[in-house]
UniProtKB/TrEMBL annotation:
Residues 419-430 have a biased composition (Basic and acidic residues). Residues 198-315 form the E3 UFM1-protein ligase 1-like domain. The lineage of its organism: Eukaryota, Metazoa, Chordata, Craniata, Vertebrata. This is Similar to RIKEN cDNA 1810074P20 (Predicted). It comes from Rattus norvegicus. Residues 71-134, 403-430 are annotated as: Disordered.
């Protein structure tokens, strides 16, 4: 009663809280204490978003917090009600205060029973902690330290109880700040989202059509070679298109990387764990298809994934295919013009000759070059094929010589062999240099008609 009379001049809705049974503070004081942490909240939230982008706060999180709080409140209300009935039933009434005295006694009993309530709170918070362990803004001892700096003359017990009183409001405010920071960052990037989707669709469409054309080229080879070509295509271009899509989805989760090519299998799994169920199913199948042995299965999974992500793929028509074939041939030719590495010269020339003779693109690893050259036997003029086979022999000879040299290390007994190998290597290198220009000319100069075209 006395407390109410004292607070009455401060306004109709003024209220106060008693700490340590002796310290009375106004609601305004508590709000001012809460504001002390505002700047630190924003700093921590921004840091959290940069360093731990997987930790996102959604509306569901905030709803969950409010549910937990209401459960705690209901528990406390029921306990208070039981204690009140027990107190009234015992006839414990103090003179002078009447109902207020009983209310005061309830507070005292409540304090004695705090251990039980704390255990309930701890149990409840432990469940919440298991679900979202990173939502804590500050621990009680940290809050106490901050309060001591701003209220240096306050009793220690008061500081401790005030910090305990502030934990839940501060944590709830922190959740809202984190969400606000997240929403502002996503809205800031939202203006470029349409452009990003358009760029992604273009890239995905290009890679999709490349894969289709590469698959067509594979079918000219025997099963064992097709298997090697399929594995290489899945490991390279198919992985590239998968990483593009995963990185696009990761941008919504604040997990995107600057270069999608750096995304690993483990990173894809981590992104998958954060996706909605519908998208997760389609993207999981796409991820798993990279370890299979079928391009058709991969493309089927890719179709489902693009549909789940609302990405429109422009599948190529004849005109578009001709453009892709020309661009691919031009890119390989440009690379061939500048390279001086004999192994790469042989690789690029073989693939270009394959495209000239079949009008199909081929994406092949270096170890499949012998099979490509063997395939070209009846597809190009005999003199060209003979030159290609000769150059292939020299490239293999050089690679074997290099491997032997690296395998011998610093063994002094191998000096004579080293000298002999050095002579062989020099001779091979000279022959390769003499033939390199002729090999390049097979595809860079105006060509004779191939056997197939004749």
């Amino acid at each position: 009663m006395l407390l109410q009379q004292v607070m009455r001049p401060f306004g109709k809705h003024a209220s106060a809280t008693v700490f340590s049974d002796t310290v009375v503070v106004s609601e305004k004081f508590i709000n001012d204490c809460t504001k002390l942490f505002s700047e630190r909240m924003h700093q921590k939230a921004e840091k959290e978003m940069k360093n731990n982008p997987v930790h996102l706060i959604t509306e569901e999180d905030l709803k969950q917090i409010s549910i937990l709080e209401s459960v705690n409140t209901n528990k406390k209300d029921k306990k208070d009600e039981r204690r009140k009935k027990a107190t009234e039933g015992s006839g414990s009434v103090r003179g002078g205060g009447g109902g207020n005295a009983r209310e005061y006694k309830i507070k005292k009993v409540k304090k004695k029973g705090r251990k039980d309530e704390d255990s309930d709170d701890e149990s409840q918070s432990s469940h919440a902690g298991k679900k979202k362990p990173d939502i804590t803004f500050m621990f009680q001892d940290e809050i106490e330290g901050c309060l001591r700096k701003h209220i240096p003359d306050a009793p220690e017990e008061f500081i401790s109880e005030l910090a305990e009183h502030l934990i839940k409001p501060l944590n709830k405010m922190y959740l809202e700040v984190v969400r606000s920071v997240f929403m502002s960052s996503t809205s800031a990037s939202g203006t470029g989202r349409k452009r990003t989707i358009k760029d992604l669709q273009e890239e995905v469409s290009n890679l999709y059509n490349n894969i289709r054309l590469f698959e067509k080229g594979m079918k000219y080879f025997a099963d064992d070679t097709q298997t090697a070509l399929t594995k290489h295509l899945l490991k390279t271009v198919c992985t590239d298109i998968t990483n593009l899509m995963f990185n696009f989805l990761a941008s919504d989760l604040m997990m995107a990387v600057e270069d999608p090519a750096t995304i690993t299998s483990d990173m894809r799994k981590k992104i998958l764990s954060k996706l909605t169920e519908e998208t997760k199913v389609a993207l999981t199948k796409l991820h798993n298809s990279l370890n299979e042995k079928s391009i058709e299965d991969f493309l089927s999974c890719l179709d489902s994934a693009t549909e789940a992500c609302d990405i429109m793929v422009k599948k190529g028509d004849k005109k578009r295919e001709r453009q892709i074939l020309f661009q691919h041939r031009q890119a390989l030719a440009d690379q061939l013009k500048v390279t001086e590495d004999p192994a790469l010269i042989l690789h690029l020339t073989s693939v270009l000759l394959f495209q000239f003779s079949t009008h199909s693109m081929l994406h092949a690893p270096g170890r499949c070059v012998p099979q490509i050259i063997a395939f070209l036997h009846n597809k190009i003029p005999e003199d060209q094929h003979t030159l290609l086979v000769k150059y292939q022999g020299l490239v293999v000879k050089q690679l074997v010589s290099q491997n032997k040299k690296s395998g011998q290390g610093e063994d002094p007994s191998s000096d004579d062999l080293d000298k002999e190998q050095h002579d062989v290597t020099n001779t091979t290198r000279k022959e390769l240099q003499e033939l390199s220009l002729s090999i390049k000319d097979l595809v860079l100069k105006p060509r004779k008609s191939s056997v197939t075209e004749e």
